[in-house]
Design a protein that fits this description.
The protein is 70% helix and 0% strand. It is built from seven helices and no strands. Helix 1 runs parallel beside helix 4 and helix 2 packs across helix 3.
Length: 108
């Protein structure tokens, strides 16, 4: 289920992933910085402003509106939520799990 909190978090991750401050995003979408802060808390965000945020940050609207975004959450903080990055993250995660299992077996 998509909540206001989740939507706000996605706005923040998209902004950070685009390398923008709240003030920079505000200027690009025609609002003030406190309004962006409210957006990042999931408040006062309408569809037109969400569309503008998507355009400025290079995200699709689905990024903000889909109920669940599984593994992408890890990558949002790095601003790398692309399909290629997700594939790479999955490979790295599997490699870490294999390494962990190997080290654990050595201790048995």
């Amino acid at each position: 289920m998509l909540t206001e909190e989740i939507l706000g978090t996605r706005v923040r991750h998209a902004r950070e992933g685009a390398g923008l401050t709240q003030a920079e995003l505000a200027k690009k979408i025609g609002v003030d910085q406190p309004m962006v802060s409210r957006f990042e808390k999931g408040r006062d965000i309408g569809s037109i402003l969400l569309t503008k945020i998507a355009e400025v940050t290079g995200q699709e609207l689905d990024f903000f509106l889909k109920p669940e975004q599984p593994i992408a959450g890890v990558l949002w903080k790095k601003g790398a939520a692309t399909l290629e990055a997700l594939d790479e993250a999955q490979r790295q995660m599997l490699s870490l799990i294999e390494d962990y299992e190997s080290v654990r077996r050595l201790g048995d």
